[in-house]
Amino acid sequence: xxxxxxxxxxxxxxxxxxxxxxxxxxxxxxxxxxxxxxxxxxxxxxxxxxxxxxxxxxxxxxxxxxxxxxxxxxxxxxxxxxxxxxxxxxxxxxxxxxxxxxxxxxxxxxxxxxxxxxxxxxxxxxxxxxxxxxxxxxxxxxxxxxxxxxxxxxxxxxxxxxxxxxxxxxxxxxxxxxxxxxxxxxxxxxxxxxxxxxxxxxxxxxxxxxxxxxxxxxxxxxxxxxxxxxxxxxxx
Length: 236
Fold this sequence. Notes:
It holds the Pfam family CLP_protease. Helix content is 47%, strand content 22%. It is of the alpha/beta class.
């Protein structure tokens, strides 16, 4: 009987391990201890069109339902987001950022290799944000692939999209909108392009990110926020 129970326990552990591996492979998410959900935003953020199969992507149709499930789950107390993204589809990136910002549970983000372009709004959408010393954030104007019609309406559309991005970043970080526009239109840093690269402490100095730190800092901050949220709930 004891051997049978041990065999069943082993099978259950193997099944759980397989489910975790599949979850990481498909959507880059994992449930950590202390009821914390881990979500990764990596590679290029994929929008309505599928990217080549050899590209590392974050699919918004995977991320949005997962965020909804996290908000609805009584078994999740906090959300940790790891970012290493080159950016990607603007609409998809803003949708993910808005979804994260509306999660009622404590949220913390950590920028690792980089969080560029539309990855910037996602990085600042959490309650608290970290960036490693060598992490980078690139702020630049909206780009568009394919045919572009040379008409005033096209310019207005680009301007409207940039205003949406700038507005979200300034609303969810300590960076001023005017300063963000200066960084976005800087001509002296990026070769053959406009924009600014912010490395580690530069991102903190500009008010985009709260603090320079690594995974231990991010986890410790999230634990603290979860504890404060529990105390607030108990006292209310």
